[in-house]
Amino acid sequence: MTGLGAKDVVLTGDAKADLASLEARKDKDGAAIAKRARALRGVLLADCLHGEVVKKARMPKALRERFQVENLYVEDLPDFWRLLYTIVRDRGERFVVVVRIVDHAAYSEWFPGRRR
């Protein structure tokens, strides 16, 4: 069975800043998290539905309003970091838009009580 492919994976300005911050860190954890985030590009191009679906009622209001997301998916990264993305359509093509790459504290703030 093949996944639902996407034309491209793009990062929001916030996600670019998150990734740059990880890559600027001097520890091996930052490098591992950034490497995995970059490696997910190929996975998401082949199957944009790869991540865990966040139910609409559980989507953080801050993300819905800032990024106008109608759907949200989560990919696990090393050291309890998460990559949050949405799928958008433009002119009949699907695109994965990475909205944020966040640590456990930020994720827990947006999704209180959620066990992963």
- Tally the helices: what do you get? 4
- Seen as an oligomer or otherwise, the chain set is single chain
Q: Residue ranges: pLDDT <50 for 5 or more in a row?
A: none
What is the CATH homologous superfamily assignment? RelE-like
Class derived from helix and strand content: alpha+beta
Major pleated sheet: 5 strands, mixed
Strand order of the largest sheet: 1-5-4-3-2
> Outline, from the CA principal axes?
globular
Number of distinct beta strands: 5
Mean pLDDT value: 91
Tell me the CATH topology. YaeB-like fold
Overall tally of domains: 1
Task: Give the CATH level 1 class.
Answer: Alpha Beta
Rg on CA atoms, Å? 14 Å
Query: How far is the N terminus from the C terminus?
Result: 26 Å
Secondary-structure element order, N to C: EHHEHEEEH
Q: Report strand %.
A: 25-35%
The CATH architecture designation is 2-Layer Sandwich
Helix content: 25-40%
Description:
The chain has 4 helices and 5 strands; from the N terminus they run βααβαβββα. The protein is globular, with a radius of gyration of 14 Å. With 116 residues, the chain is an alpha+beta fold. A hairpin with a 2-residue loop joins strand 4 and strand 5. Helix 1 (13-24) runs antiparallel to helix 2 (28-46). The chain starts with 7 loop residues before the first strand and ends in a 6-residue tail after the last helix.
